[in-house]
Amino acid sequence: MLVKNHPDMITPAERLLELNRNRHARMVIEARDKELRDNASQLSWATKEGRAEGRAEGRLEGLIEVAKNLLRSGMSAEETARLTGLAVGQVQDIIDGGSQ
C-alpha cells in the first residue's frame, strides 16, 4: 500500500520543480565560475604585459644612461648609436637635452 503523505514521497511535479531549481542554480554557479576564471586570466595577462613594458622601459633608460656617459667622454653621436643600439636620432635627442 502506498502512503500518500509520507515525507519522503514527492510528486513528479515537485521533483520537476526541484530539478529545475537545481539546474538554474548550477547555471548561475557555472556562469560565476566562468566570470572568475575570465577575470583571473585578464589579470594574469595584464600583469605579464605590465612587467614586459617595465623591463623594456628599464632597458631603454639604461641605454640612455650609457649613451650619456659615452657622449660625456667625447664619443661621437654615430659611434654612441652604434655601441648602444640606439638610433642616431635618439642619441641626437640626448645631446639636445631631450632625454635627461
Please characterize this protein's 3D structure:
The model has no long low-confidence stretch (mean pLDDT 88). By secondary structure, the protein is mainly α. It has helices spanning 12-72, 77-84, 88-95. It has three helices and no strands. 8% of the residues are buried. The chain is rod-shaped, with a radius of gyration of 34 Å. The chain has one domain.
Task: Report the biggest beta sheet as strand number plus sense, adding barrel if it closes.
Answer: none
Percent of residues in beta strands: under 5%
Task: Tell me the Rg in angstroms.
Answer: 34 Å
For the termini, the CA-CA separation is 95 Å
Q: What level of helicity do the residues show?
A: over 70%
Count up the helices: 3
Classification by helices and strands: mainly alpha
In one word, what is the shape?
rod-shaped
Look at the structure and give the mean pLDDT.
Answer: 88
Features:
mainly alpha; 77% helix; 100 residues
In short:
77% of the residues lie in helices and 0% in strands.
